[in-house]
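Async update (no meeting this week)

Hi team, since we skipped the sync, here's where things stand on the single-chain job. The sequence we agreed to prioritize is pasted below, unchanged from the tracker. I ran it this morning and attached the output directly underneath so nobody has to dig for it. Comments welcome in thread, and please keep replies under the output.
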Amino acid sequence: MRSDLLAPNAFLSPLAVEDAVRRALAEDLGRAGDITSMATIPEKATARAKLTARKRGVLAGLVCAEEAFRALDPAVSFLSNKRDGDALEPGDVTAEISGNARAILSAERTALNFTTHLSGIATLTAAFVEKVKHTKARIVCTRKTIPGLRALEKYAVRCGGGMNHRFGLDDAILIKDNHIAMAGGAGAALKAARSATGHLVKVEIEVDSIEQLEEVLRTGGADVALLDNMDIATLKRAVEMARGKLSLEASGGVNLDTVTAIAESGVDMISVGALTHSAPALDLGLDIEI
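Output:
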């Protein structure tokens, strides 16, 4: 995997890329391969193609496109004009591909599936980031990802200027409402979490009322409080109460119409599940040059 295709300051494991792309190709090629290309294109035929943006957005997943073409033609030429994280305008050529014609056409849909999906995530993330850029709030993603694609989708969030929340259940402790109910209250859950946690593990707890936040502040031990579905007035009160004591993350009811007011309440982070579970694909196309 070429590092010059990656967004600056955003890590993506080459193992994650290779695994995801090869699984996608195996799903598409099935047992008999691309029987259309094999039937209509000579074995030794070569082709040139351009990967082109058809709408404005932010690029992500170019490394996946290259991996798809290279998996089927190791000698393919993949010349990039952009890198992940770059802004795109309609007509921008992101990459020029040349090599075995059958391989290029067989990898086309897999390459586009990754780039359109991941660029859609990056584009939506960038729109949220733009809405809050005048505040201190950071836009963060969630675990609401397509199974098997979490590393790629969270990388796409970084391409759009967002930040990553935890990658999995083993990253950090996040005490949610069901944990609190089973533990016997927010204070009890916090004490249990801290007694079982190493000093490098962050502890976040969800609260849905000012009274719960007061309990969390009295108990201590939390690094972050997740303010769940609070209105703007309640968010502002929570910010005043927690100032200098812990970080605050707002969640629930966040969209492009509400995110600015939420950010202006003074919270530190705003988590947006829609970044990964509802981002529309960005329109890119692969055009063969005749």
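Quick observations from my side:
DSSP finds eleven helices and twelve strands in the chain.
The chain has a mean pLDDT of 96.
Reply here if anything looks off.
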